[in-house]
Amino acid sequence: MNSHNKPKARVIAFYLPQFHPIPENDKWWGKGFTEWTNVAKAKPLFKGHYQPRIPADLGFYDLRVHEVREQQAQMAREAGIEGFCYWHYWFSHDHKLLERPFQEVLTSGKPDFPFCLGWANHNWTNKSWEAGTRKQKEMTLMKMVYTEDEYIKHFYDVLPAFKDKRYITVDEKPLFLVWKPLDFPDTTAFIQLWQTLAKQNGLKGIHFVGLQQNIASTKSITLLNILLKRIPSQAEQLYQEIIDHGYDAVHGRGYLRAEQLVRPLHEVLLRSLLVRLFKIFIISKCDQRKINKHLYGEIDKRENVYPLLFPQWDRTPRSGKLARIYTHSTPSVFGEQIDSVLELVMQKEEEHKIVFLTSWNEWAEGNYVEPDLKYGHGYLNVLRKKLIE
Description:
14 helices, two-stranded antiparallel ribbon
């Protein structure tokens, strides 16, 4: 690797901080619960199914250990990843969750590796880590609070991060991603308030990015749509709505639509029949190679659309038989996907050649590039090869 080579795209990897115990998770899920709890007990559901997934170099790590965070940053840097987008769980000024790893990164100044924040602005329910069971009635564990007073307190809470020299910027403005960009009572008012506060506090503004799938909902897709393989992208309308509310860019995702286009017909029919008649779920599988063919569209070439890298997906540890499982996910198949993304961003201005990698370490969703026992550094190696070699 030539360390002087500049990566061909600005790859920002989503980073999950769920790998350390917190009092709330102890209460809700049992003493010592972390993301590893479900990862370690996952079982294969069919012949050749890669479960459980076991981490290699870093083991079952604890993110309170700074050496782990340093090693992660080093691996990411060597692979050509620009920085981490830490998921940020702010429900109100009284209720923040999983903030310790990022807070220690911020206050210690280590690792010296770029970062930004992604606000996971959704209620927490007991559905998240029930691993496919239906033993408990769904209930809200932590609720989002949207008020002007909270917006102001939230802004000043993250301001030290925005001013940190490591914070990732676009057009000299700190990048702030929002998971549910239009969930606010008045989205435009929230964005305008933060833009005003940013300028009052010495920033040029904030580069807001809203996350959006390219279809509104899988619930609107009929069985006939799937059988005929006619599921048009709604990206034009959905992305524009986010921009119209004041966001600077959209992080576009196409995998939900891709799944419906590539699911085997016999599975679609049988699953639909069994669920309706007997409430029985059969395993749902998608071929990653086919998913890759439907992930992107022309709209991903726009300056204000930041596409997705999506190496693998298997939610078995969280959802059991309810999971959708991507098969044939390998480093070489991921390499083909990287080629497609680089072609999409090739003509964009350097600042806007942004690609979000989902994810660095979502182990319970089978969605990670960290080394594991099966592929070792395979996913990181192909990233480095495509981005900087």
